[in-house]
């Protein structure tokens, strides 16, 4: 007995989409596709190479940042980095450091302090660095891992170029004198290094916290 023929489906068949009608393949998530993504990608990868503990940076950054901003402010307005700011920075490392850092890491930080203090002393003797700048650099040294020296120098270079350009532009255009007529840095032949040193430590700890 023969079987009845199968009924034809009344549903129209779907046309096969052509290759040109398909959506273009997306870039991998790790690849930046816009300037904003490129900056974020660069910062993330830069921060990933830093060895300072990220959790310690999260705890230290809110304490260190106000001191660094104060240093930048006093150097901008008075061409002076106060000893009190240096002492507070060292006190933060001495008191809070052991609570958030591995003890060995924290102890090695004091060697950084001694080395940079000695370097700053000789640099100040030959007139290459101000006394306040040297003391602040020594106080900031324990917060920086030795293996992060090159990244920190890169950050410092960017901060120096940016702060110097902005300071000289503001002074040349007369904007600075209208904002702060009594600020010493507008008439001083020297550049207020605290304007770059303070933000350098802030940016470094912020990048470490991102990692």
Describe the structure.
The chain is mainly alpha-helical. It contains eight helices and no strands. The chain has one domain. Helix content is 65%, strand content 0%. Residues 16-35 have a biased composition (Low complexity).
Q: Could you list the spans in which at least 5 consecutive residues all have pLDDT below 50?
A: 15-29
The total of helices stands at 8
In percent, how helical is the residue content?
Answer: 55-70%
Distance between the termini: 77 Å
Question: Major beta sheet, specifics?
Answer: none
Mean pLDDT: 85
Radius of gyration equals 28 Å
Give the strand tally.
Answer: 0
- Tell me the strand percentage band: under 5%
Class computed from helices, strands and strand pairing: mainly alpha
For the record, the count of structural domains works out to: 1
Order of helices and strands: HHHHHHHH
- Shape assignment: globular
Region (Disordered): 1-36
Keywords: Membrane, Transmembrane, Transmembrane helix
Transmembrane segments: 56-76, 83-101, 107-131, 152-170, 190-210
Biased composition (Low complexity): 16-35
């Amino acid at each position: 007995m023969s079987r009845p023929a199968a009924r034809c489906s009344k549903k129209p068949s779907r046309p096969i989409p052509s290759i040109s009608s398909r959506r273009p393949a997306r870039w991998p998530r790790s690849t930046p596709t816009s300037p904003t993504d490129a900056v974020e990608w660069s910062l993330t990868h830069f921060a990933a190479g830093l060895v300072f503990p990220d959790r310690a940076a999260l705890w230290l950054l809110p304490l260190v940042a106000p001191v660094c901003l104060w240093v930048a402010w006093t150097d901008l307005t008075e061409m002076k980095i106060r000893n009190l700011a240096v002492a507070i920075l060292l006190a933060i490392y001495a008191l809070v450091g052991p609570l958030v850092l591995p003890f060995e890491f924290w102890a090695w930080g004091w060697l950084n302090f001694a080395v940079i203090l000695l370097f700053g002393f000789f640099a100040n003797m030959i007139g290459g660095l101000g006394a306040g700048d040297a003391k602040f650099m020594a106080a900031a040294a324990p917060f920086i891992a030795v293996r992060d020296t090159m990244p920190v120098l890169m950050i410092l270079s960017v901060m120096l170029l940016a702060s110097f350009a902005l300071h000289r532009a503001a002074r040349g255009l007369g904007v600075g004198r209208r904002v702060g007529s009594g600020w010493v840095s507008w008439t001083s032949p020297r550049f207020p290094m605290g304007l770059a040193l303070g933000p350098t430590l802030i940016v470094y700890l912020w990048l470490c916290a991102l990692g």
